[in-house]
Structures are given as C-alpha cells and as structure tokens.
Design brief:
alpha/beta, 8-stranded parallel β-barrel, globular
C-alpha cells in the first residue's frame, strides 16, 4: 500500500452506531499481503512457516523477490505477485521484456509455486504511469499464454477506489473521468480473459476522513441495522458498499461478469485517529468472518480478500503506515486473530 488515496462520498449524518456479531465464513477466501519494507523482518523461510502455522492459504507479494519465491516452493500457498510500478514502462514497450519477466519470475517456479494472479502495477490509475498499465498487461498476458499458463494464472492490475468518480449510493458507482480512459479497456480485457479486477479497499480511510458522517460501527462491521438503503440492497458495512460501487462501475462499461478480488484491506493499530489495537482486531477479525458471505450485489459469492499486512514495517512512511501488521517482526501477533 502506498500513501492511501481513498476517496469516498460523504454519507448521511443519520449513520447509526451499534454492534453486530459477523457470521463465520470460509477462511479459504482470505490471504495476507507480505510487504517487506522493514529492516528487522524475519527471513522468507520463516515467513512461509508463519503463514502455514496460522493456516493462511494465500499471499500477495509486491515484487518477484527470488528468495521469497524459493521459500514458497512446495508450500501450496496461493500467490499474487506484482509487476512493480517501475517496470511498467519497459514491459509495456517491449514484449521481449515482458516475456523475460514471466520466464524468470513465473515459469522458472511454475512446478512448485502456486501462482494465482499477476498484478501489473499497484494503484497506478489515474496517474502518470497509467498509460502503461494496459499495454504491459497485454504483453504479460501474451507471455503467460505462450507458456501455456493462461488457464492457471490470471493477469490483472491492482487499483485503489480513487478510480471511482461516483461511489454513493453504490449502484451509482462509476469511474472518474481521469480513470475511465484507462479503466474501460482494462475491464474489457479482464472480461475477455476471465480475470478479476484487483481492488484495494480501505474503509478505515473513509471513516477517518469523514468521521462526522460515517459511524465507527459501519466501518468496523458492527452495525446491527441497515445504514445505507440502495434500491433492493441494504448495506450494514462500508466494505460492502465500496466493493459494490466498483462492481456497479464495471457493469456500466461491459464488465458485468468481471469479479473483484480485494487485493488489500486492513486497519492500523496505531499512528492516527481511531488506529487502535482494539479497532484493528475488530475490523480484521470481522473481515475474515464476513467475506465468505459476499456483498449485497453479489450475495453468496465469497470475496477473495488479502489483509494488509503480515508485519508492521518500520521503513514505511508516514507513521500510520508502519502499523498495519498482524504480526510484529519477532513473529508475535500484534493482537489475537483467528483464520480458522
């Protein structure tokens, strides 16, 4: 996660504060992001063992670090691997560079690492590098197909909810004018290839920045009542509303069959407003319990979701960004949480 750029429409001041016990859901929908911006983190082999010990079946990594890929061999952990943003231009302009990237970082490990998605860029759209995302995706897709892996590994990109220009109510979700030039053809690419859109979803930032309009219970999955009524759909939590707004935006540009994978979501335990251990534990535990249920718009369809992040990372900035971890660098949990 870079510096969050979550933009969310302001909700009614009538938002309610109350408590809900989430219904347990299948843990198969949950993974955890393994960021490495720290100088005191465990070695990759220890990290893989920590995933296994906690029954975390999926991992996202932000670059194809060879030591991490080696540690993942034979682990059966499902993997999302990013093409770093700094590589987008070269992979977009040179198909041979994309082929080499796939050969070196995917094909070389294909027999012993369970690749699931390649995320071509993280939170690039809209922005200066946005023009390179689709061409890079296309070249990576060609390389994956040439290796015969197109049915096993799906090529996508990871976006923040800043791609939305309209987000409230969720059914009105639409891409912003700045994003739609890039998002419309990307959604159509995903539809053609049977790939999901990866979306970073952070109710925390929407709540922090609109705390007078959004209740803590709506952000933390603890509301007992419908807070936002949107036609036939009722929303008791902000996470579902944000995800469904992206679904609505994709439907408007021919992506009604494109699934969403939540490639990041989490809550900080220190460093800013409402960033407490208790809130972080509440959000992440409720997220784990919730995602197997789907959203009102996609009821019953589990939302594959990756919690950000595995560790508190001491080289991230600003201060808040250091405190999203489920675990401390010594491998002890920041707070108790169950994936079972």
């Amino acid at each position: 996660m870079g510096i969050p750029r979550i933009i969310w429409s302001i909700y009614s001041t009538a938002l309610l504060v109350s408590v809900l016990t989430a219904v347990p859901a299948s843990v198969s929908a949950i993974g955890v992001c393994y960021g490495r911006l720290g100088n005191n983190l465990p070695q990759p082999g220890e990290v893989v063992n920590l995933y296994k010990a906690n029954k975390i079946g999926s991992m996202r990594i932000y670059d194809p670090n060879q030591e991490v890929l080696q540690a993942l061999r034979g682990s059966n952990i499902q993997l999302v691997v990013d093409v770093p943003n700094e590589n987008l231009q070269s992979l977009a302009s040179d198909p041979s560079a994309a082929s080499k990237w796939v050969q070196t970082n995917v094909v070389a490990f294909r027999t012993s690492v369970s690749f699931r998605y390649i995320a071509v860029g993280n939170e690039v759209i809209p922005g200066g590098l946005a023009q390179y995302v689709l061409p890079a995706m296309q070249n990576v897709q060609k390389a994956v197909s040439s290796a015969g892996l197109q049915n096993q590994i799906k090529v996508s990109t990871s976006v923040a909810t800043i791609v939305l220009g309209t987000s409230y109510p969720p059914s009105a979700g639409a891409f912003s004018s700045a994003a739609q030039t890039h998002m419309n053809p990307i959604v159509q690419f995903l539809a053609r290839n049977g790939a999901p859109l990866l979306v970073n979803v952070y109710p925390y930032f929407s709540y922090r920045d609109n705390r007078n309009q959004i209740s803590a219970s709506y952000a933390l999955f603890t509301s007992t009542e419908v807070v936002v009524k949107d036609g036939q759909f009722g929303y008791r939590n902000l996470f579902d509303a944000m995800v469904d707004a992206v679904y609505a935006a994709m439907e408007k540009v021919g992506g009604s069959n494109v699934a969403i994978v939540v490639s990041e979501s989490g809550w900080p335990s220190a460093g800013d407003f409402a960033a407490t251990i208790e809130n972080a534990k509440t959000y992440n535990q409720n997220l784990i319990r919730h995602v197997g249920r789907g959203t009102p718009r996609k009821s019953g369809a589990p939302i594959e979701t990756y919690i950000f992040a595995m560790f508190n990372e001491n080289q991230k900035n600003p201060e808040l960004e250091k405190h999203f971890g489920l675990f401390n660098p010594n491998k002890q949990p920041v707070y108790p949480i169950s994936f079972a």
